[in-house]
Amino acid sequence: xxLRQLDKKHFGRRGKPEDIVVGNSVDSYLIDSRGRxxxxxxxxxxxxxxxxxxxEVRTAVGKxxxxxxxxxxxxxxxxxxxxxxxxxxxxxxxAVSYRTTGGTESVEGALQIAMACTGRGKFxxxxxxxxxxxxATMSIGAAQNRETFKNLLPNCHKxxxxxxxxxxxxxxxxxxxxxxxxxxxxxxxxxxxALVPDREFILGVRKLCTRYGTLFIADExxxxxxxxxxxxxxxxxxxxxxxxxVSKAITGGYGGLGAxxxxxxxxxxIKEDFGLYSTYGWHPxxxxxxxxxxxxxxxxxxxxxxxxxxxxEHFLSRLAQMTFRGKATIQGKGFAIGIKLEDEAYxxxxxxxxxxxxxxxxxxxxxxxFFPALTITRQTAQRGLDILEMSL
Length: 392
Ligand SMILES: Cc1ncc(COP(=O)(O)O)c(C=O)c1O
What we know:
14 helices, 18% strand, seven-stranded mixed β-sheet, alpha/beta, 392 residues, four-stranded mixed β-sheet, Aspartate Aminotransferase, domain 2, 2 domains, 15 strands, Aspartate Aminotransferase, domain 1
């Protein structure tokens, strides 16, 4: 049997794999098993923010000679170092990190913290959002999850975009009853085609949460670590969440790791009952990768964020000049850019043609997404955009 047949027989996945066999990856390129080089505008969907194969991170991982494993009940200095860095770089009063292995577990943990802290059981989220694939994270996610899984958690209310004054009014009606544990959203919604909410809306929700004792959870699993041109997307709005979820770009792809970060006040309030035990949370090797990755990011922060902001603007203006079949809504911030096409077949066709022409983009449902590395050069970005234009 060839690879495709074996994959079909033994590998669980939704639908068919894309027509590419991965060999290697370097900088902003992915190389297939036959040596063909593709420009990577996906970067693993917000994972490889520093480009693939960053020498410092790779060396730190290669040279790692610490323990094979550390039990969660022990003290381990690199854990404290990572938690301390996260406290320093995340917005507002966030100070205490809980260890997780990835994004779903981080959001799941955030929901649990909110329940433990408020003693409430309801949640409010944005309709059609994505926050992970556990039962709880699917319950706050897209309504279509409920078609496959009939008995997801009740009491999860969804707010339908546009995220405007009317939406804010609906949120106030829900929060007023003082039984909502948390409101959750991505500050820039990558999973809705990089939707950028109005400042008035997001800060309005923040105010309502404070007024009615609901916690504000910012899911920065996709937007974290520079993706939108700020270290965290919350910073675009001066938003201070009560809980922040991170993962994906925290190790740049070198290990599965995530974190739920909250304030000392909240962590102290739940200390006796809540620990978020995770056997493989913050595995020593993944922590070594995260530390090297974050140290690099911090040292080159200004240059990387400026590149994402400036080139991100350039992406938006070039995309605005391209001709798409039918209506195309272009939106985004920094290097989180989406195009809503309202035609699934066309989106999929564009994704396939780009790949055939040497460019990897995300084409899911009717949305095209672009998440280039923060390190991408203007020249490579231009070439990728030329390929996209030619592929339309
Ligand atoms: C915003 C957001 N939250 C949570 C998740 C879940 O993360 P993971 O796939 O690491 O479980 C994702 C994954 O794409 C995401 O985009």
